[in-house]
Amino acid sequence: MAALISKLLFLVTLTLLGLNYNANAEIRGKTQRKINRANRYGPFLGIVTQSNFQKNLLLEHPSFTSYNETIEFAGRVFTFGGISGERVVVVVSGSSLINTGITTQLLLSLFRIKGVIHYGLAGSVDPSLHIGDVTIPQFWSHSGLWVWQRFLDGPQNKLPLEDSGDFSRKLGYLKFADYAVYVLEGLDRPDARLDNSLNNIWFQEERVYPFNSTLEERERIFWVPVNATYYEIANDLESLDSELLEKCVNPTNCLATTPEVSRVPTGTSASIYVDNAAFGVFLNDKFNVGPVDMDSAAVALACHQQKKPFIIIKAISDLVGRGSVEDANSFGSLAAKNSVTVTVEFVKLLQEFNVSRPGVFSL
Ligand SMILES: *[C@@H]1O[C@H](CO)[C@@H](O)[C@H](O)[C@H]1NC(C)=O
Ligand SMILES: *[C@@H]1O[C@H](CO)[C@@H](O)[C@H](O)[C@H]1NC(C)=O
Ligand SMILES: *[C@@H]1O[C@H](CO)[C@@H](O)[C@H](O)[C@H]1NC(C)=O
Ligand SMILES: *[C@@H]1O[C@H](CO)[C@@H](O)[C@H](O)[C@H]1NC(C)=O
């Protein structure tokens, strides 16, 4: 009897607390009701962009239908609309891995999402790619998680916390001494052989806690695959009519090459803006990377952990320490437009692949 009474009291207290919380916390009140109403129209395709400029290019695209419905939460604006009948929710992540990871997780936690498309700009460290080209990598990695090795230690020495399994030497390293200009230019100077006190940085896998895996059991991943079906569908984008992609910002200022869409093996991200050609060559040699940016790996890792299909469509807007700064500046908005064009075409292909319920709604 006493047990029953205390259980009842517990339930009553929980209910009262819940009501109280409902009255005070925005997410539980009006916003939560709006989110619930929106989700009745889902699942949506989630679209994550880098900036307001890029978002507006999509919202102004002739194939985009605005539902005139947005939900604001945690400093983000989630905008609802349709692309050729597919219901989408669009959100700006801002740049950096942290902002992008937070935004993607919010998108996946708040809304019923069937898959995620991330589009925007990247640099290229692959010399065969040009400004204005649009790339779709099959794998993404976060290459900014490092162990910075102490001076005089080398590949034969264990890393800190290697024994406990926190870090490993399997992905390899970058040795600062290899980048002394005298070494690179092959000049025979004894002092060029001197070591560099910055020594080596060792690349590490990300730590992930996938949904539906053993709780709180850490897993590791470096190369996160995009959804195989999405990647297969994206094959058709490689033969996209080149007329659809922009080549000129005005009649006298055109790209030297006609932009192309290509699926590429890998892209990589870190919260580092790389404008250094030597590091670019390193990334391309070591990891066979094409596009390099500051956000895609966060989308990849969030979707991977939540087991949501995703794909990333990045237009090349600079050549990472190669090429002219003027080109990067004058063709940035053209590249952004090309990433939007390819994103819209991808949604159309997805739509052909699987007919979903189209249509406007209001909340
Ligand atoms: C959204 O608002 C614009 C401008 O007021 C209007 O032209 C359009 O029809 C509206 N769309 C929907 C789906 O309500
Ligand atoms: C998660 O696990 C549950 C129970 O085993 C299963 O029904 C569900 O399909 C799983 N979800 C995903 C996305 O794997
Ligand atoms: C890839 O996406 C498709 C379409 O949503 C889905 O059916 C499939 O399960 C996904 N594959 C993986 C490995 O998540
Ligand atoms: C097609 O749509 C259905 C219903 O929304 C979904 O269950 C299924 O996973 C989709 N398949 C693909 C390949 O997208």
How far the N terminus sits from the C terminus, by CA atoms, comes to 47 Å
Indicate the radius of gyration in whole angstroms. 24 Å
What's the level 1 CATH class of the largest domain?
Answer: Alpha Beta
Q: What composes the largest sheet?
A: 5 strands, mixed, barrel
The small-molecule ligands in this entry are:
2-acetamido-2-deoxy-beta-D-glucopyranose
Quote the average pLDDT.
Answer: 90
Arrangement of strands in the largest sheet: 5-16-15-6-17
The share of residues in helices is: 25-40%
Q: How much strand?
A: 25-35%
- Based on CA inertia axes, which overall geometry fits? globular
Number of helices: 10
Q: Helix and strand string, N-terminal first?
A: HHEHEEEHEEEEHEEEEHEEEHEHEHH
Record field, number of beta strands: 17
Low-confidence stretches: 10-25
Structural class: alpha/beta
CATH homologous superfamily label of the largest domain: Nucleoside phosphorylase domain
CATH architecture call of the largest domain: 3-Layer(aba) Sandwich
Instruction: Fill in the CATH topology of the largest domain.
Output: Rossmann fold
Number of domains: 2
